[in-house]
Amino acid sequence: MSLAIVHSRAKLGVQAPPVTVEVHLANGMPGLALVGLPETAVRESKDRVRSALQNARLEFPSLKRITINLAPADLPKEGGRFDLAIALGLLVASGQIPAASLEHCEVLGELALSGELRPVQGALPAALACRDNQRTLLLPRANAAEAALVRGVTIIAADHLLELCEHLRGEQPLAPVECNASPAAIGSLPDLRDVEGQAQAKRALIVAAAGSHNLLLFGPPGTGKTLLASRLPGILPALEEDEALEVAAIQSVCGRDMLQQWPTRPFRAPHHGASAAALVGGGSQPRPGEISQAHHGVLFLDELPEFDRKVLEMLREPMESGEIHIARAREQLTFPARFQLIAAMNPCPCGYQGDPSGRCRCSAEQVERYRSKLSGPLLDRIDLHLAMHNEAFSLSGEAYGKPDSTEAAAWVAAARDQQLKRQGCLNAHLDLAGVRQHCALQPADAAWLEQAVERLGLSRRASHRAMKVARTLADLEQAAEIDRPHLAEALQYRQLDRQPEAGLP
User: Fold this and answer.
1) Angle between helices 405-423 and 460-476 (to 10 degrees)
2) Where are the domains positioned within the chain?
3) 471 Cβ partners below 8 Å, 6+ apart?
4) Arch. (CATH architecture) of 3-169
5) What is the DSSP letter of 221?
6) Coiled coil located at which positions (predicted)?
7) For the segment 128-173, what is each residue's pLDDT rounded down to a tens digit?
8) Peptide bond into 263 cis (omega under 30)
9) How does strand 110-111 pair with strand 117-118?
10) What architecture (CATH level 2) is domain 186-397?
C-alpha cells in the first residue's frame, strides 16, 4: 500500500484538535517533503524518523519519493509529538505494518534516534479526545500514567518503536495500561490548627471556603496572612473526577506532574513581579497562565498592591466569567479560569498603620496613594475584606488547636452540599437571577440592608456579593433563611469599601 493514514492530535491551548498524518510513497526522484504548516521542530522530525527506523532495523523507503501531509493544513503544528505517527505511517505505506491495525487508533510520541519513545506534553487532553472518539491511544510509556487517568479509553504504551510494531503486527500484543494513581493524602496539607489565635480570620477563611468567595486579608507584617492563606487547600473538598481531569489537562499542557497532588485542588502563589502573560496566559504560542493553573483551586496574591495595576485589572473578567480569552492574529483561545482569589496586603507602605507601637510614619497621602493601586471594580469583586491585627504572643498552646482542618473541612463540605442541592452551584457563582431567588430576604431585613448599603456607600455589585456571603453564613448554620445577623456579619467583611465614619444602622 503506497498511501497510509494515521490519526494523531495537536496541542492548541488546553485542547487537542485532530491531525491526520497522510504518508504517500511514489516513484520518481528520491526525496521527502513534509507539508501542512509544520514549525521547525516538526520539520526536523524527518531526520529523527529516518535514524530511528534505521537503528531499529526497520526499512526506511529511501528510494521512493515521500510526501507527508499533516492535515488540516491551516492548523499550526509544533513539537515532536508527530514523530511516532509519521514513522508508523511510513511503515504502513511500505507494507511493514498492516494498515488495519491503525484504523481505530491515535498516535502520539517523540522519537529518539535509537527508536526509543520520549514523552510529549498534552497527553491527557489527547486521551480525553480519544475517549470521546472511541479510539485507542498509542503513546510513550512515560505518558501512560497521566493518560490512564481518563476512564473509558484504551491506552497502549511502549518504550521503543519495535514494541509497538510487534504489537500492531499481532506478534507480541501489549496489555492496556491501567490507572495506578492514588489520591494524595489530605492530611499532608498544612493544618489550620497551626495558626495561633486570629479567630475572626479563621472564621472568614471558613466562610470563604464554604461559598468559594474571594478573600482579601490586610494587616501589619507578621499577623499570619500568608500562613492562613496556605491553610485554605486543607479545608476544601477534593475535586470531583471531571474537575480533576480539567485541572490535570491544564497541568499536562504546562508540562507539570499532576499525579502527586491528584485529586487535590491546585494552590498557585505567583510573585508580585509576574507579568500579564505569566498571570493570565499568552505568549507567541499561548499557554495557560497562573489563573488557569489555579482552575478549581486557589490563586494567592501576596503583597497585592505591589502587582502592576494593569496586570490586576486583567483579573476582573475571569473573576466574573471563570475563563480567559486570548486573542492572536491567527487564532483565539479560551482557557478555563474558575479560581478562588485569596489576596494579602499591608495597610500602608511601611505596613504598620494602626500598630499600637506607633512605628508607622506614613502620611495620609502616602497611604491613599498606596491603596489607590487597587481599583474599586477589583475590590468590588472580592467578597470578603478582613483586617488582621497583631495578637499577644503565647507559647502555652491555648491559642492553637480549634478548629483544626478536619473539623473545618466537615463544616465546609456540609455547607457546599446544601448549596449544590439547592441551586446546583456554589454561592459565589450565583448570577443576578440566582441571588434574587436563593438570597431572598424578609421585607424588614431587605429595608435594613438598603439603609446599610446606602450608609456604607457600597456599590450594587458589592451589595449583591454581601448577600451571597450572608447566604453562605446561613448555610454554615444549616439555616433555611437568611437572618439579620447573617447580613450584619456579611457587611462587616466589606471593610475596605466603607466610607469614613460609616456604621451599620
Assistant:
1) 110
2) 3-169, 186-397, 430-505
3) 211, 427, 430, 438, 439, 482, 486
4) 2-Layer Sandwich (3.30)
5) T
6) none
7) 999 999 999 999 999 999 999 999 999 999 999 999 999 999 999 9
8) yes
9) antiparallel
10) 3-Layer(aba) Sandwich (3.40)
